[in-house]
Amino acid sequence: MTTKTTGIRLTFLAKFAALTLSASLMAGALLGCGAAESIEEILPAPTAEADAEREEIVVLFTNDVHCGISEDIGYAGLAAYRNRMLERTDNVTLVDCGDAIQGEVLGTISEGQIIVDIMNEVGYDLAVPGNHEFDYGTPQLGALISDARADYLACNLTYTGDGINALSAVEPYKIIDYDGAVQVAYIGVTTPESITSSTPAYFMEDGEYVYDFAAGNEGADLYACVQGYVDECLEAGADYVVVLAHLGDTEDYAPYSSIDLIRNTEGIDAVLDGHADSVIPCQIEENVHGEEVLLASTGTKLHNIGQLVISPEGELSVGLISGYAKRDAEVTAFIERESSAYQSMLGEVVATSDVALSVNGEDGARLVRNRETTIGNLCADAYRAISGAQVAFVNGGGIRDDLPAGKIIFADVIAVHPFGNTLCMVEATGQEILDLLELACSKVQAEASVDGQAVGEDGTFQQVSGLRFTVDTSIESSVVLDENGNFAGVEGDRRVKNVRIMGETGAFEPLDPEGTYTVASHNYLIKEGGGGAIMFQDNELLIDEGMLDYQVLITYITDHLQGALSEKYSATEGRITVI
Questions:
Q1: Domain 347-578 CATH class label
Q2: Which contacts (CB < 8 Å, 24+ apart) does range 540-543 have?
Q3: Which end of the chain is more exposed for a tag (fewer CB within 10 A), N or C?
Q4: Which of 425, 428, 426, 382 is closest to 546 using CA atoms?
């Protein structure tokens, strides 16, 4: 068993250049952190004595790729960098920390299959299911895991049903032996928020939850679960424990954030994280005993490659590789070949527009999850127009991309609605509508963005049609959630006020809590309680999974608007007022 080196040196930015690459290493380290001026300095030459015992261990990691197949470094660049490291040492392990298979057109059309095929080609060894790995349903995820060459890990995922566990192949951890001298335990952790941030119905059988993520008790259940597997790995002889997490690091993810996990456990050396799309070159957090634990995350869309190194002397260092220019020819050809079958379908022109609609504000901050937006109004109006409902909702988390000016092709529309949800309509009470709005606006803040970054975001925030209302941010949210993150009520003052509904004449009238209204959205919200919005699940369905979401949008644009988006969607209308 090796002995870990103690001590810490902090330097966060290091650059290197070589004849065949152009990249930068944003470096930090646990038990050793320093600047590098060349690729050789990233993996310093081992001493003769250490080399006789073992080589460096290099753990390359990605997270939240979201189908960014060829963006920035891309999978071909990742493969090239992995091959470069394999020239240096045989001890290279490639891992993904979740949300790889969903987010763009090819993932949607193939239900994740093309992404898994590419990951197989690149050479992934381990992967963690992020919340969006569940978006195509647990049977499909199980099939993808069967096809994957990587081992999928999630120690806090358990099945309690009486049927067939589609995810039985998911293991809690894997211990890899390097050179017969060092054992590294990799423990997977998936966010307990998966139930509500994916599709709740996917985790049920006969209306009962059968998948559990160690949620509850203000995070204590998750900490205890992970601690148990850390102890098990150490008892099995692991020299290092690396947690592959899909938790997120910010306060929005408390009490299940990666930082919460570190501060409430012991024995973990490093946490490689995903879920928040954060760029963390190196962050040092203290565990329950005040011992230092390394935390890192790559951001999203393969803008960076993460690299954790265990030196022959036992030091751990971590950094992010960005701007890497070399591409693996075989992976490039594989991606082109696999993608070509979809191109003719994706390039078909389905509509035209004379105005571009964006999910972002003028400062570049994503506003579709905390403010009224023109593209949100378009999407919600499409649901209301196609269904004939009085009110329509589309959650901000379900509007994923902009619509360009000019020709709109099939791929553009799928990029806006990539989930393949279906149109539903129910009869609902005014009180149920008020409850949805209160839940949807629970995180809204007075400012929409700070320094170009959105604040108070929530994927459950609703873009609306047929409604107008005000959010009073001076009132703290009093929404109560159950242990699974589902809406359980409101215990205090409501921050959503002055809710008005459009009448037959087009005038807006006060919403009657005792009245009944027709409400349109998609199956994710209406039937499956997405984002914890379970208030409509028992209501009578007037439309049960009709047109696909992108078909709703296409039909509205072409048949109802004749492509003239600028007449109605060049500016917001004051549907949602935030004070």
A1: alpha beta
A2: 540/426, 540/427, 541/424, 541/425, 541/426, 542/425, 542/426, 542/427, 542/518, 543/387, 543/423, 543/424, 543/425
A3: N
A4: 425
**ω before 192 within 30° of 0 (cis)?**
no
Please tell me the predicted confidence (pLDDT) of residue 53. 60
Rounded Cα distance, 435 and 541, in Å = 19
- Residue-wise pLDDT for 97-122, tens only, equals 999 998 887 887 788 999 999 999 99
Q: What is the pLDDT of residue 36?
A: 33
Residue 17 predicted with pLDDT over 50: no
Closest CA to 380 of 317, 308, 461, 486: 461
Given a cut of 90, whether residue 566 has pLDDT beyond it is: no
Task: Give residue 534's pLDDT.
Answer: 95
Give me 522's structure tokens: 């998609």
**Residue whose tokens read 């649901």:** 383
Please give the structure tokens belonging to residue 539: 């209501």
Mode of pairing for the β-strands spanning 576-578 and 467-471: parallel
Confidence (pLDDT) at 50: 46
Q: Answer whether residue 3 shows pLDDT above 90.
A: no
Which CATH number fits the domain 14-340, given the four candidates 3.40.50.1000, 3.90.45.10, 1.10.10.10, 3.60.21.10? 3.60.21.10
The contacts of residue 341 (CB under 8 Å, 6+ apart) are none
Produce one character per residue of 457-496: b if its CB has 16 or more CB atoms within 10 Å, e if not: bbbbbbbbbbbbbbbbeeeebebeeeebbbbeebeeebbb
* Amino acid identity for residue 340 in this structure: S
pLDDT tens-digit series, residues 281-293: 999 999 999 999 9
Same fold, 14-340 and 347-578: no
How does residue 548 score in pLDDT terms, banded at 50, 70 and 90? Answer: confident
Region of 492 please: left (phi>0), alpha (psi -120 to 50) or beta.
left
DSSP 111-172: TTHHHHHHHHHHT--EE---GGGGTT-HHHHHHHHHH-SSEEB-TT-EE--SS--TTTT-BS
Q: How many distinct helices (H) and strands (E) make up the chain? A: 16, 33
CA distances from 237 to 56, 108, 270, 449 (A): 19, 42, 17, 48
- The residues, ordered by sequence, that sit 6+ positions from 266 with a Cβ below 8 Å of its Cβ are 227, 230, 287, 288, 289, 291
Residue 440 φ then ψ, to 5°: -65, -30
> Reduced to 3 states, what is the DSSP secondary structure of residue 570?
coil
182 or 197, higher pLDDT: 182
Assigned token pair, 285 = 């957090």
| Domain ranges, ordered by start, for the chain | 14-340, 347-578
Residue 236: enclosing H or E segment and its boundaries? none
Mean pLDDT check: name the lowest of 29-38, 45-54, 200-209, 556-565: 29-38
Q: What is the pLDDT of residue 477?
A: 95
More confident residue, 559 or 237: 237
SS3 256: coil
Q: Cα–Cα distance between 214 and 224 in angstroms, integer? A: 9
Q: Measure the CA–CA gap between 120 and 127, rounded to whole angstroms.
A: 11
- Is 317:8 a contact under the CB 8 Å cutoff? no
**Angle at Cα 227 formed by Cα 225 and Cα 229, nearest 5°?**
75
Provide mean pLDDT across the span 538-561: 86
